[in-house]
Amino acid sequence: MPGECDVWYFDASGFCFTPSIPYAWQPIGSVIQVPTSTHNRRINVLGFLTRHNALFPYVIEGCVDTTVVIECFEQFSQQLQKKAYVFLIGRYF
To answer: What is the per-residue pLDDT for 66?
Structure first.
């Protein structure tokens, strides 16, 4: 029966505030500089998404481990109104 359950997709991505520029085109003898922050923070975004673009993101500063992922699933599950299936996306899971 249609509407009996929801389908969600779970994925994660990380962002570092220290840029990595391995190469660039520039005139001989010139130097390209990119200003950066003084700390090496990393922001990780974990999220649940439906095919209708409903999104429940979790922003984590620092390391993501099993405990963090389980806590995200616990918090997400509290808002569900009906049975749901979650597909894990990405090479990390």
So the answer is: 92
Confidence class for position 39, pLDDT limits 50, 70, 90: low
CB-side exposure of 82: number of CA atoms within 13 Å? Answer: 7
Using CA atoms, how far apart are residues 46 and 60, in angstroms rounded to an integer?
8
pLDDT band at 91 (very low <50, low <70, confident <90, very high): low
Q: Is residue 93 part of a domain?
A: no
pTM score: 0.71
**Angstrom distance (rounded) from CA 9 to CA 4:** 17
| Secondary structure (3-state) at 70 | helix
Residue 9's beta-bridge partner residues?
49, 87
In a domain, 15, yes or no: yes
Tokens of 34: 């990119």
The structure tokens 């991505």 sit at 13
What residue has token string 């599950």? Answer: 77
Host domain of residue 59:
5-88
